Structures are given as C-alpha cells and as structure tokens.
C-alpha cells in the first residue's frame, strides 16, 4: 500500500510538478505576447485605413514621347550605295 501511495505521489509530481508549471507559465506568456501582437496588428490596420482615407489620388504627368516626324516631301532623296571592301 505504501508503494502504491509513493507511485501515485511520483506520478502526481511528474504530471503537476514544477516542470509542468513552468511550461504552463511559458504557454501563458506566449499567449499574452500573441494577444499583444494581434492587438498591435489591428491598431496598425486601423491606422493604415485612416491614412488611406486621408490620401488623395493624383494622376501622374505623362510626357509625350519624342518621335521623329517624317521628312518633308519636297526634299530630294538620293540613294547612295557604298560597295563593301574585300579583305
């Protein structure tokens, strides 16, 4: 009977002892940190929504792309063919 009581006591200590409490405290701290991070994220999202509502849309200046105009028709056109040199 005493042996069984000792085994029960050891099993309780394994299950509910300091290590279990330490891991439970760690889990509680992690949950608190997660809640704080979620609260910060929602605050940031709200601030971003307010900032987006205050912004105005401005159209960008579009430059006209320079393009060559064709040569006037009254200019004379001459074709010059340069023969290639042989090496």
Describe the structure.
By secondary structure, the protein is mainly α. Helices cover 60% and strands 0% of the residues. Helix 1 (2-16) runs parallel beside helix 2 (18-54). The relative contact order is 0.04. The mean pLDDT is 79.
Give a concise summary.
The protein is an all-alpha fold and 87 residues long. 60% of the residues lie in helices and 0% in strands. The chain has helices spanning 2-16, 18-54.
The end-to-end span amounts to: 113 Å
Give me the secondary-structure category. Answer: mainly alpha
Radius of gyration: 41 Å
Mean pLDDT: 79
- Per DSSP E runs of 2 or more residues, the count of β-strands stands at 0
Q: Sketch the topology as an H/E string, one letter per element.
A: HH
Poorly predicted segments = none
Strand coverage percent:
under 5%
The major beta sheet can be summarized as:
none
Global shape: elongated
Q: Could you estimate the helical fraction of the residues in percent?
A: 55-70%
Tally of contiguous helical segments:
2
Write the layout of secondary structure elements.
Elements: H1 2-16, H2 18-54
């Amino acid at each position: 009977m005493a042996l069984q009581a000792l085994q029960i006591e050891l099993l309780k200590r394994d299950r509910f002892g300091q290590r279990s409490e330490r891991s439970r405290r760690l889990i509680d701290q992690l949950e608190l940190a997660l809640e704080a991070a979620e609260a910060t994220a929602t605050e940031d999202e709200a601030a971003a929504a307010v900032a987006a509502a205050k912004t105005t849309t401005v159209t960008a200046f579009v430059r006209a792309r320079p393009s060559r105009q064709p040569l006037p028709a009254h200019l004379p056109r001459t074709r010059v063919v340069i023969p290639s040199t042989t090496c």
